[in-house]
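Hi support team,

I submitted a single chain yesterday and got back a structure, but I'm not sure I'm reading the token output correctly. Could someone confirm the output below corresponds to the sequence I sent? I've pasted both exactly as they appear in my results page.

Thanks,
R.
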Amino acid sequence: MTNQSSASVGASDNAASPSIKFRSATAADAEWIDQLQALAFGPGRFARAAFRVRERFEIDPELSLIAEIEGVPISSVSMTPISLSGVNGYLLGPLATDPAHRAKGVGRALVREVTTRVLTASVGDFVLLVGDESYYGPLGFIKTKPNAIIFPGPVDPARILVHSRDPADAQDLHGPIAAFGAT
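Hi R., thanks for writing in. Yes, this is the structure output for that exact sequence:
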């Protein structure tokens, strides 16, 4: 698996679109990521489902990515290895983008990149998240069976979405979120 790749972002893919580069997060990014998440989600972020899962399980630093334009970090996503009913996958989140770069396609490009890395490298069978279907649906995420997946804290079951190699698998996922490799 490569640690760096690039793509064009923006409303249209033309020569004026900046080139975004993706790289794995490093320990040197930790403070910037924390500040970005504080800006994006405020002090209530620690009650969010993704943060609660990360309290229990470590993120995967190789799959937790930073998006950069011209060497400047502008967006981040954390990926936490998890298991549901014996099937290994990843929890995506939190995803945060610098306010100066929102609504330009950077977050979507980052989600596409990390989902592709998980599913094509066969490191996980699914990517799970809690989010808006209107944002994530066009990226291949679909709703899971209501109340089938149990998070370590409150979550709106209508906002639990999954992207898997086979969309039918989304309806089979169930149970509490467990450690990667748990059966």
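A quick pointer for reading it: The longest helix spans residues 106-120. Let us know if anything else looks off.

Best,
Support desk
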